[in-house]
UniProtKB/TrEMBL annotation:
Residues 37-180 form the SIS domain. The lineage of its organism: Bacteria, Fusobacteriati, Fusobacteriota, Fusobacteriia, Fusobacteriales. Keywords: CBS domain, Isomerase, Repeat. It comes from Fusobacterium hominis. This is KpsF/GutQ family sugar-phosphate isomerase. It holds the Pfam family CBS. The record marks K55, E107, E148, H189 as: Catalytically relevant.
C-alpha cells in the first residue's frame, strides 16, 4: 500500500531532477563525433534514414520529422518493417541513424548486414558503444544514462529524453551549418502560423476587382459616402481616369463634417488625402502590417499597387488574421 504521506508534486520534481542530471551527464560526454556526423550528413548526396523500434522508434520519428522540417532530407523506417521489405528505401548514399539504447535490439542488429551490403553509412545513437550496433557503426552518438526516471528503473525515461535531446542537438547544428533561416522553415510549414507570416503576400489576401470602392475626383460627397457604405472597407480610392490620385477614409468624412455649411457641396477631390500610403501587391503581408502600424498615426487600410496601377485594397483586419501580432 502506498504511503499516505507520498507527495506527488515532490516526486514529480524528483523525476525532473533525475532526468536533468542524466542529460547533464550525456552533455558532458559529448565529443567530436557529433561534428563528424553533421559533416557526414552535409556531404551526403542521399537522405537520413532514422530507424528504431518501440520507444526508441517513437523518438526516432520525432528526430526524423525535425530534420525533415529544417532542411535535411530525412525519413523514418521502423526497424521491424525494415526486416520485411522497407530496407528497399535505403540507398548507398544514405546515412542510417540507428537508435538503440542497449545497442543489441534484435530488429536493428538484424538490419546491419543488409545495410552494409547496400553501402549506406551507419550512425549509432546508443548507450553502449561495445554493443553489436556500436561496433558496426561508422560513428557513435553516446546517449548512455546511468538511471531512468522510472521508480523501478525499467521504463525508458532518461534514456529516451537523452536520445531526443541528442537528435535536437544534431538538428540544431545542421540548421546553423546550412544557414537555415525562418523563411526556409516557413516553406516546410505553409499551413502553420509562421508559414503564413513569412510566405503570404499582399496579393494573396487583398480585396480586388468589384470589391474595391472607387469614385471619381469629381464625385459628390453623397456618392462617396454611398460607395464607402456599400463596399464596407472604410475607405474609397479616388480616381482620375485609370490613375489613383487620392484616398478618402472614414476619418476624412468625419473631419469634413466640421464644414457643416458646405459639406454636401464638397467633392471627392476636396477632402481626399493626396499623399497616401500604399503597398505593392508582391509585398509580404507582414511588411504591409508593419507599414500600417509603425507610424505616428495608424491606418486601417492600404491601396495595393502594381506599378502605378491600383489592383486592390488590404485591411489591417485581414493582415492580422494571417500574420497575427
Amino acid at each position: 500500500m502506498m504511503n499516505m504521506e507520498f507527495n506527488e508534486v515532490d516526486y514529480a520534481r524528483s523525476v525532473f531532477d533525475a532526468e536533468i542530471e542524466e542529460l547533464q551527464r550525456v552533455r558532458d560526454h559529448l565529443n567530436g563525433s557529433i561534428k563528424d556526423v553533421a559533416n557526414l550528413i552535409l556531404k551526403s548526396k542521399g537522405k537520413v534514414v532514422v530507424t528504431g523500434i518501440g520507444k526508441s522508434g517513437l523518438i526516432g520519428k520525432k528526430i526524423a520529422a525535425t530534420l525533415a522540417s529544417t532542411g535535411t532530407h530525412a525519413i523514418f523506417m521502423n526497424s521491424a518493417e525494415g526486416l520485411h521489405g522497407d530496407l528497399g528505401m535505403i540507398c548507398s548514399e544514405d546515412v542510417v541513424l540507428a537508435i538503440s539504447n542497449s545497442g543489441n535490439s534484435d530488429e536493428i542488429v538484424s538490419l546491419l548486414p543488409s545495410i552494409e551490403k547496400i553501402g549506406a553509412s551507419v550512425v549509432a545513437m546508443t548507450g553502449n558503444r561495445n554493443s553489436k550496433l556500436g561496433k558496426a557503426a561508422d560513428y557513435i552518438l553516446d546517449i548512455g544514462v546511468t538511471k531512468e526516471g522510472c521508480p523501478i528503473n525499467l521504463a525508458p525515461m532518461s534514456s529516451t529524453t537523452s536520445t531526443l535531446v541528442m537528435g535536437d542537438a544534431l538538428a540544431a547544428i545542421l540548421i546553423k551549418r546550412r544557414d537555415f533561416k525562418p523563411e526556409n522553415f516557413a516553406v516546410y510549414h505553409p499551413g502553420g502560423s509562421l508559414g503564413k507570416r513569412l510566405l503570404m503576400k499582399v496579393k494573396d489576401i487583398m480585396k480586388k476587382g468589384d470589391e474595391i470602392p472607387l469614385c471619381d475626383k469629381e464625385s459628390s460627397i453623397n456618392d462617396v459616402i454611398m460607395t464607402m457604405t456599400e463596399k464596407s472597407l472604410g475607405a474609397v480610392c479616388v480616381m482620375n481616369s485609370d490613375l489613383m490620385v487620392g484616398i478618402i477614409t472614414e476619418g476624412d468624412i468625419r473631419r469634413a463634417l466640421s464644414r457643416k455649411e458646405e459639406f454636401f457641396n464638397l467633392k471627392a477631390k476636396d477632402i481626399m488625402t493626396r499623399n497616401y500610403t500604399k503597398t505593392d501587391e508582391n509585398s509580404m503581408a507582414i511588411d504591409a502590417l508593419a507599414l500600417m502600424e509603425n507610424r505616428d498615426s495608424q491606418i486601417s487600410i492600404l491601396p495595393v499597387m502594381n506599378g502605378l496601377k491600383l489592383v486592390g485594397m488590404v485591411r489591417v483586419h485581414d493582415l492580422l488574421n494571417v500574420v497575427g501580432r
